[in-house]
Amino acid sequence: MTVPEPWFSRVIAEGLQRLAAMHLAAAPTAAGLDLACAVWIDTLWHRRAWHEDPDAARLRQAFTALAGHARRWPAPADLLDQLPAKPQRPALPKPDRAPVGQAHLAIMKRLIARAWHPLPGTTPRSKQP
User: What is residue 47's predicted lDDT score, i.e. its pLDDT?
Assistant: First the structure.
């Protein structure tokens, strides 16, 4: 098992402290908040691959959304339900078909087409007795 990275632990701890300040029903006591934080970090860290950029911002957004409608102390799964989708990477540009590449492609197509036709003076297999 890998040890959670410091940025991840910090973001989870900050989010849980904000939730604790709301005094939600079933929230851990001040003494139990450290243990609850450790459980959340351990539970969430091993569920997926996390990367500081962009996941720190996504986790903060999820905590904000969770705090916006929470009436009871949430479970780690509730945070994952609020986690925004990862931003899509830009698509790769279409390959540049340089004139030289186009010429080579045309030559290859002609060679392939010629290979499918019978050579002069031969009979195709389908017409042999």
Answer: 85
The one-letter amino acid code at 11 reads V
In the chain the first and final C-alpha atoms are separated, in Å, by: 70
| pTM reported for the whole predicted model | 0.70
The residues, ordered by sequence, that sit 6+ positions from 4 with a Cβ below 8 Å of its Cβ are: 41, 42, 45
Residues in the chain: 129
Determine the pLDDT at residue 103: 83
Distance CA 4, CA 37 (A): 12
Q: Give the span between the Cα atoms of 121 and 23, in whole angstroms.
A: 93
How far apart are the C-alpha atoms of 125 and 129, rounded to whole Å? 9
What single letter denotes the amino acid at residue 101? G
